Amino acid sequence: MREDIKSMTQEEIAQAMAARGEKPFRGRQIFAWLHRGVRSFEEMTDIGKDLRRKLEGAFYITAPAVERKQVSRLDGTVKYLWRLGDGNCIETVLMSYHHGNTVCVSSQVGCRMGCAFCASTLGGKVRDLRPSEILDQVLFTQLDSGKNISNIVLMGIGEPLDNLDNVLRFLELVNHPQGLNIGMRHISLSTCGILPGIRRLGELGLQLTLSVSLHAPDSETRSRIMPVNRAYDVDELFKACHEYFQRTGRRISFEYAMIDGVNDHDWQADMIAAKLRGMPGHVNLIPLNDVAESPLKPSRRVRQFQQRLEGRGVTATVRRSLGGDIDASCGQLRRKAMEEEKKENER
Ligand code: SAH
């Protein structure tokens, strides 16, 4: 079985070289090539033929293929559907803002969290992504688009804290000076609220931005729309967030998709304010994206809810929606491609 070399750290590659009787500096050389996006050992031109052949026998290099690419005519947002080595597809979104280019990456093929409003979870989880496969989304989006990526959000398909070891390795790789060298302060990680994962991140004290998908401040509503709440209750979640803030000093961002008649009542805004007290949280209100398969509809009270929060001292913004014309959110493109593939097969 060949090994996935792009999931290895520079030190691990150097050790593997030393173990084969090669000079350890090869680690640095190979690492740099991989993080420039080469697709084969053949392209590593300053490495001798013999060693290249040996490497080929022992390792493989992941490189996704562009299965589909959609460019928004409204705002230039680009959505990639990549095909992975084993045939599975994942999505990546590239968004351009005045302060730079942000890429939104997936952490799993599918998702097993079961949130009622989310398209990513409809087919369940197929498998975790490897560190290299998360990195490739940044690397090949940059190469394909020709745009320099300055920010990363782990907000695509999947639950990053359900694949934490691989996500931590990805962070180490993408942060590396000889790699893409993207600073932790330019990275956000979004979770539906897996408490052991939040605690572990807090202990590590990484300087990334933690986003928590809150979507309801009360247990009853949250359990209804987010099954994870039955395992990790929202009050425990708030407690873990307070601890996280105390440890890291980093302000947490709370995602809140506004659903008509479900989580858009004034009393819920008041409850958010009460439960956030003592911590500088920031609430990001997201107009719900209509998912065809779901009976949940977008709220018409977004502005009122925002004002209610602000009136109680909570910073709240309404997320600007990008790529509305290209299925740019939450697993919708992968979903569409899967359906079409299914139809093809039935024919
Ligand atoms: N699993 C992680 C990250 C992926 S989802 C998490 O739950 O945070 C990225 C964000 O999109 C989450 O806040 C998620 O709740 C939100 N989201 C999912 N479906 C949505 C929809 N239909 N409309 C608006 N936001 C949605």
Question: Can you give keywords for this protein?
Answer:
347 residues, alpha/beta, 10-stranded mixed β-sheet, two-stranded parallel sheet, 12 helices, globular, binds S-adenosyl-L-homocysteine
Report on the architecture of this protein:
This protein is an alpha/beta fold. It is built from 12 helices and 14 strands. It has helices at residues 10-19, 25-34, 49-58, 131-145, 164-175, 195-204, 219-225, 228-231, 234-248, 266-276, 302-311, 332-346, and strands at residues 3-4, 59-60, 65-71, 78-83, 89-97, 100-104, 108-110, 125-128, 149-154, 187-191, 209-213, 253-258, 282-287, 315-318. The strands form 3 sheets. A 10-stranded mixed β-sheet has the order 3-4-5-6-9-10-11-12-13-14, with helices on one face. A hairpin with a 5-residue loop joins strand 4 and strand 5 (89-97). Helix 6 (195-204) runs parallel beside helix 9. The protein is globular and about 70 Å long. The chain starts with a strand and ends with a helix. The protein binds S-adenosyl-L-homocysteine.
